[in-house]
Amino acid sequence: SQTIHQWPATLVQPVGSPLSLECTVEGTSNPNLYWYRQAAGRGLQLLFYSVGIGQISSEVPQNLSASRPQDRQFILSSKKLLLSDSGFYLCAWSPRASMNTEAFFGQGTRLTVV
Amino acid sequence: AQKVTQAQTEISVVEKEDVTLDCVYETRDTTYYLFWYKQPPSGELVFLIRRNSFDEQNEISGRYSWNFQKSTSSFNFTITASQVVDSAVYFCALSESVTSGTYKYIFGTGTRLKVLA
Predict the structure, then answer these.
(1) Which residues of B are less than 8 Å from A109 in CB distance?
(2) DSSP-derived secondary structure letter, A27
């Protein structure tokens, strides 16, 4: 069966420090991958999605970037964190299929920038 | 543009009451999918249901039921005889086709449901 791993679960980082959040998927190949952010009162905002290795689409201009160095690995990064980067970050995957299925989410990373 | 609106920010009910969570969507696609997810306090999103735009039949799963009305662009979720364990944030979502086999998921802002004992 497929599983998605996301870490760390919680992170407290000072303003101006770098960020690296990692997400891996097991039990499937060639998945669509997504990074979402959940800020208070704003629901789930799609940040990036990827359809393949090295292929990243950005949805919202921001201080963050994403990379997909391997088929089932998706990384969210920042060179210098801002206070506004605080939030709950969720990685998700969906199968590449002609019929739309649901997305499957990781357990999330709660980031607090201080 | 694709959009999902969940106008109810927070709802509080007493245990055993029925509660309906509203979801209204906008899309230019003729074929699309709608979803409901539950987010318990742990934070992980739990998938509840998927519905495609050609299937307007209501669906019931235990205490949960969904009412899809294409004419009003709504996909509402009802919990019958609510329980404390139903307390969570509930998200409605709409998929948007990006390329063949790839979709984006557009979420509403969520409705926080509090079920009081």
Answers:
(1) none
(2) S
